[in-house]
Amino acid sequence: MDIFTCSFHTKIIVFKWKYLLNTMFSKKKIISDRESVFFLSLSKKRKNEFLGVRYALKYLGIKVNIFYDKKRKPFLFIEGKYISFSHSFDRIAIGISSYQIGVDIEKLRKDKKIIKIKKKFIRDDESFFINTNYEEDYLHIIWGIKESLYKLEGGIYYNFLTHYRVSPFCIEKDRFISCWIIKDSYSKKFLAFYRKIEDHYLVYIIDK
């Protein structure tokens, strides 16, 4: 398990499903009787996510259920606390912050799918700074940034070409990347942070 304390206001937990299955917290201890009905209706993938998020909350000592607003954005009934989560293959990432937060985790896949779909999310003004020697890494980071912005905004703006833009960057450890949500009337700038965890890229954005 990886735990990142980004600051006093934000914590991010990344762990493998295998860790969850081997933990002392069984699903009977993580979910309530009321949640069990909903849990049984989920697909296997969503069940893992459901358990993973609740395990992370329990690990952090947060005893509260997760709810979803009309835009399907998760929220906690705790004043001043926000949550975002993501999963990819055997990893799940959960971010909890005193500020609005968007989190994404993606695996570097052997089938290089990210290259095949890059035209769906890479703008012309983003393609020029991508180092072709590390194209997959750049694409995963940019995708993670735009996915995190999408979550931060609550899933309103779904076009990754039109509504989100990433400023030029070079891949360096412990660096942040400027990025933007582009709306009809104005644009808003954010700072994205990323790190590579084995064969996954974690990206998170905090709206401070």
Main sheet overview: 5 strands, antiparallel
How would you name the oligomeric state of the polypeptide chains in this document? Answer: single chain
Backbone CA Rg: 17 Å
Helix/strand class = alpha+beta
Shape: globular
Name the average pLDDT: 84
N-to-C order of helices and strands = EEHHHHEEEEEHHHEEEE
First and last CA, distance: 27 Å
Task: Give, in spatial order, the strands making up the sheet with the most strands.
Answer: 7-11-10-9-8
| Proportion in β-strands | 25-35%
> Considering DSSP H and I runs of 4 or more, what fraction of the residues is helical?
25-40%
Task: Please tally the helical runs, counting DSSP H or I stretches of 4 or more residues.
Answer: 7
Q: Low-confidence segments, ≥5 residues, pLDDT <50?
A: none
Number of strands: 11
